Every structure is written in C-alpha cells, then in structure tokens.
Amino acid sequence: MALNKSMHPRNRYKDKPPDFAYLAAKYPEFQQHVQTSLVGRPVINFKEPEAVRALTCTLLKEDFGLTIEIPLERLIPTVPLRLNYIHWVEDLIDGQKQLRRGIDIGTGASCIYPLLGATMNGWYFLATEVDDICFDYAKKNVEQNNLSDLIKVVKVPKKTLLMDALKEETEIVYDFCMFPYLFCFFTKQRGVNSRNSRRPPPSSVNTGGVTEIMAEGGELEFVKRIIHDSLQLKKRLRWYSCMLGKKCSLAPLKEELRKQGVPKVTYTEFCQGRTMRWALAWSFYDDVIVPSPPSKKRKLEKARKPLSFTLPEAGLKELQTKASALGCAGGCPVESVTSLLEKSLTELRVLFKHAPCRKQEQSLFLTAVENTWIHGRQRRREQKRQLRELPRAPQSASLQNTAATTAPCPSTSDCNTKVNVQVAGSPEQNCQTQPVKREAPKEQIEPESDHMNKANTSTDTVMDTSPKEGLTTENDSPLQLLSSHGAVSQFLFKCLLNVMLEEKDVLVELHWVEGQNKDLMNQLCTYLKNTLLRSVAR
Predict the structure, then answer these.
(1) pLDDT score, position 351
(2) Which CATH number applies to 20-304?
C-alpha cells in the first residue's frame, strides 16, 4: 500500500502501514489476494478490484470493527484517504467526541464516511444516495453494524445536492457536509487533463458507476452548484466542504466564493502515495475556527530537502584503495569519494566545478546537459554489437591506416590550430586561429565527448562551451571542467553535490538549483550511489 508522510497527522496509517502478512494469516478471504514479491515482501495487486475490495473490508474489520459489503461494479474506497477527510472535518468543527451532525452527499455503496464518523466520533449522519444499488448496499451496511440510530440513509432524485436533501428537516442545523470526490474525479470536462505527463499512472484500478464518478459539466461546475445551494441555505450548516480531484479547480472555486462574499474559506491537501486530493471548505458563521491551509514554508522546506545517500565506514577503505589505484589524489575518505564521483561524472559528460565549502567537505557544482545515466548498460551493449557487425578492412588498408596514425606530427602548433578557442580577456586574445590544411594525428585530438569535462586550471581563462569546440593539452586532467557553467545556455538541470563526514561514514547530498525536472537529479543520484556501492561490493 502506497503511504505518504504528508497524510493527516492523526491518520493511523501515517506511520504504521498495514501488516499484510498478519492480516493474511488472520483473514482467509484476504489471504488469497496476497502474493510474495521478489524481495520476499507480501503484496497485493491493486489493479484487481477483488484485491482492493478485500483490503478495504479487512482494514475496516480489523481497525474499526466494521463489517461491510461492496459490489465490484461500484466504487471501492481506500480507507487511508477517507480517514484524511474525516480528520480534516474534525479540525473544521473543532471537536472529535462531541455530538455533531453531518451530511454525506452521495454516500456510495460502502457508506464509508458515515460509518467511520459514527464509529470513531459518535457523529449523526444524514447520508443521501441517488443510485438504487448503492442505496441498498449502504442501508444494509448501516444495519448490519447496528448504527441505524446514528446514520440515516435516504434515497433522493438525481441531480439533487443540498436543497432537496434538507426539505424534510427544516429546523435542524448541521455542523458540516461532505461531498466526496467520487462525483468529480473522472469528469466529463472537455479539454481538462490535470494529470502531469511526468507522473506515473495510478497504481490502483478504477471502479464505480456512472453516477459515482461523473458529473455533468465536470468538477468545476458541479462544485459551483454546491456553492449556489449554500448561498440559499447559509447558516443551516456551519461548514460546507467538498473534495476535489484536480488542483486546477481550487483557484477558480476560491475566486467564486470571494465574489459571492463568503466570509470564511479554507482548503487543504490530502496525500497518499501517488494519490493527491484537495479539499475546500467555507462557512457563513463568524465564530467558527478556520484551520490554516497547508503551510507554504513547510512545502518550501520539503522542496529544498536534498537527495542523499550514505557510504558506511566498512566500505570506505575499499573506495580509498580504488581511488589510489586510479591515480586520484587524496588520503581522507571525503577526498577519495569525491575523486571517484568526479570520475563517474566525467564518464557521464556531466559538467562540474569545485565550489566553496567548509573544512572536511568537498562541494561540486554540476550542470547536466544530456541524460547519459539512463540505460547506460543497454547503450554499451548496442555499441559493442555495432562494432562486431562492422566489416573488416583489408590487411593492406589496415597497415596504411596504422602507418598514418603513427606518423610524427610536423609541429605541435599545427595540431592545436585545428581547435577553435576563445579566451576571455583582451581583444587580441579573443581572435580565432585559422585552421591549417595539414591533417593532425588522431592521438592528439580528443573526441568531442571528452572535451566537455576538461579544462586547464593553471590559468583563469574561460573556454567556449559550444558542443563542437574545446581545448585539451597534455597537462589537462580528465577530471577538470572545460567551461564556465554560466556559458551553458541549454541544460537539463543544475545542482550542488556535497560530500562530507557524518561521524565515521561519508554522506553525499544533492541540492537542487534549477532545471527542467527534479526526477532527473533523482536518477543521477541513484546512478552515482549504485556506482560507488558496486565498487565496494567488488
């Protein structure tokens, strides 16, 4: 089960995920859906409706003492996400155990919100439903859990929201109402696709009837109808709330409430693994306590949290030995690890330069201009295959080529004039040397891919970083950077890599600076970690 540390603080599954092995041993109907993964962990297939239903029913039975039945052709709720909404309503009404009255519009076959609210807090619920099958199952689930005195399930006409649901109870003031996202997540809203293309697909199957998962006009128009109903009912409810399936709906709905003069408005986020939901609440009462929306400071701190991995003390000696064997200078573990990282970055053609840092630390500023760390093994195999398939040249031609490549160079200056160089400084230094017609030996001209990570650090010159230009000399180290990073106009991302001691271990951190996609930095971090750990394993 995909869980998330950003779940509501009181959610029981936030820090204690369900124990599938224990549940499988206790509940035979759940055991048949549990499989063992390649690493030996018990897992279930969230793409199978039967498995999702078995998990929901088992969690409700184990953790809340509730026995429910859900048809496969109707929406199967996930328990952790529903708990997030219940706990936020607790925050809205400022009290968990007092007698409170709520309305659940579109309760579904499971009737999960009223069942959880009544069981956990003793709340009274008016649960409405338009679908015949959902109504029958919801009523049955309430009765078999002996909660009919707290939950009243009523059948209402289609397109009914709040107005018709409260016709018979004109004198009762309700503390809150809940509109689950099940009306809004998969909506008939043309031209709107809020899911980022870089996000992975949903990990669980979608079930549900048409009345549960679609609303005419889409999510935005549906919630606006709720707002217009609330403008007529006003203080018949202390809090109006609804869950949203798309973040893009939040801003226009807040603007609609502002235009209508609603005095109290707040919102929040619900997180569970890959699943994100947003909730909006408003009130016409002046004395209600308005929970603070998600802290921008907390979200900023979360965004700035670096990626990191630790190299344990047991493997540092092997890394130091390997660094020395490769000719990398540095006796302390931090310097050795940094040298090995520089070697990997050079092989990946990731630009880097040393940045100021504290004592006993090393810091590199990285600029990635192309993704060379994904599918590297596949590319190497393909290159070897292509080399094997190349036709062999005749022996006489091979001898001629060998003679040509081993011939002495007429002059060093003639060889170096093949490379176009720009030096920052006086106008005389910025001129370009005209190329000489004589062909230079291949040994003395570096490949284009090697130019990217090479520079002469003995001077303060700044080299041009265009893909086909560069300069190498015999004194250049392969771990030195060719260019000033500011000269790179197009790049994937930039980050700061820090290597430091943490007690007796070495900690490596990658801090995001800017770029197109943070997932690329995550991939690079994983590649570097695996490269170092493989070195220790060998």
Answers:
(1) 94
(2) 3.40.50.150
Higher-scoring residue by pLDDT: 70, 15: 70
| Kind and range of the H or E run holding 310 | strand 307-311
Does the annotation list 216 as a binding residue?
no
Q: What is the pLDDT of residues 496-532, one digit of tens each?
A: 999 998 888 899 999 998 888 888 999 999 999 988 8
The arithmetic mean of pLDDT across residues 481-486, rounded, is: 42
Q: Does the annotation place 129 within a ligand binding site?
A: yes
What token pair was written down for 400? 């001629």
Q: 375 pLDDT exceeds 60?
A: yes
Task: Give every CB contact of residue 234 below 8 A, 6+ residues apart in sequence.
Answer: 284
- pLDDT value, residue 330: 60
The arithmetic mean of pLDDT across residues 369-395, rounded, is 74
Single out the residue of 63, 66, 54, 115 nearest to residue 86, CA to CA. Answer: 115
3-state helix, strand, coil in the chain (%, to 5): 40, 15, 45
Q: Which two tokens stand for residue 111?
A: 């009737």
Which residues are CB-contacts of 24 (< 8 A; sequence separation ≥ 6)?
Answer: 30, 31, 34, 42
Which among 125, 92, 59 has a CA at the least distance from the CA of 266?
A: 92
Beta strand pairing status for 174-178 and 237-244?
A: parallel
What one-character-per-residue DSSP string does 54-106 give? HHHHHHHHHHH-------TTS----HHHHHHHHHHHHHHHT-SSS--EEEEES
Mean pLDDT across 406-424: 39
Report the alpha-carbon distance of residue 154 to residue 262 in Å, rounded: 29
Q: What percent of the chain has pLDDT over 90?
A: 42
Q: Are 17 and 3 in contact (CB under 8 A)?
A: yes
Residues in the chain, total:
538
- Strand runs (DSSP E) across 355-425, as ranges? 361-368
Helix axes 79-93, 49-64, angle to 10 degrees: 50
| Domain limits, the chain | 20-304, 306-373+444-538
Structure tokens at 361: 């630390």
Q: Is the pTM of this model over 0.70?
A: no
From 454, 469, 268, 224, select the one nearest 349 (Cα to Cα). 454
pLDDT, residue 91, reads 92
Is 221 annotated as contributing to ligand binding? no
CA-to-CA separations, 164 to 133, 236, 294, 534, in angstroms, rounded: 21, 13, 34, 66
Q: Which of 249, 224, 227 lies closest to 177, judged by CA?
A: 227
Q: Whole-angstrom Cα distance, residue 195 to residue 180?
A: 19
